[in-house]
Design goal:
This protein has 198 residues and is α/β, with parallel strands linked by helices. Helix content is 42%, strand content 14%. It binds zinc ion. The site of zinc ion (ZN) has 8 residues, from loops. Zinc ion binds next to loops.
């Protein structure tokens, strides 16, 4: 059984999403067996990210600068904001290359069960951006889960009395599906087939 530093590393890694103890042990073994080729480059990459990681004050994207690469990109259509739950969803849509507007990362969803209310998410910032910066369309791209859809509905209600066009991406995807798990083709189709919601 691994002990000491090696065990500590396994424990830390096994807390990450998608990794259990078994995968963590295998990962650590690979790292220590290939110290020069894998462990040391990983160490320096992690150190670099730890030093540079920032959350964009405008949209909530996770990037190595604030404002982020999307918000500072002059070629973007600044009249459209796509609302997503997490930065991973933003990255997924970026991978699909279908969308050239701005984003807003909520940082989760409303959840009655977990006691997460509007004040726990970045919703006020979204309303502010949408209503003061010449935005003409807000695309709701929350996940096709109960909480994701409830969150989209709440934002729709908040923006109902504006002239902003509201649309929802089509979820021609498994119900309960999360954006980050979709292939780029499915995500492109969902964005193209977005439906006006009011
Ligand atoms: Zn940003």
């Amino acid at each position: 059984m691994p002990t000491g530093d090696i065990d500590t590393l396994i424990q830390l890694l096994s807390r990450l999403p998608g990794l259990g103890k078994r995968s963590a042990r295998r990962m650590v073994l690979t790292l220590v067996k290939n110290k020069e080729a894998t462990l040391l480059p990983l160490l320096s990459a992690m150190q670099a990210v730890a030093n540079s990681v920032q959350v964009c004050a405008e949209c909530g994207n996770v990037d190595d600068r604030n404002l982020c690469h999307v918000c500072t990109d002059e070629r973007r259509n600044r009249e459209t904001i796509c609302v997503v739950e997490e930065a991973a969803d933003l990255w997924a849509i970026e991978r699909s290359s279908i969308y050239r507007g701005l984003y807003h990362v909520l940082g989760g969803t409303l959840s009655a069960l977990d006691g997460i209310g509007p004040e726990d998410l970045h919703i006020e910032g979204l309303i502010h951006r949408a209503t003061t910066q010449g935005v003409t369309e807000v695309i709701l791209a929350t996940n096709a889960t109960v909480d994701g859809q409830m969150t989209a509905h709440y934002i729709m209600e908040r923006l109902r009395d504006t002239n902003i066009k509201l649309s929802k991406i089509a979820h021609g995807v498994p119900v309960g599906g999360e954006l980050d798990y979709l292939d780029e083709g499915t995500l492109s189709a969902a964005m193209k087939a977005r439906q006006p919601v009011m």
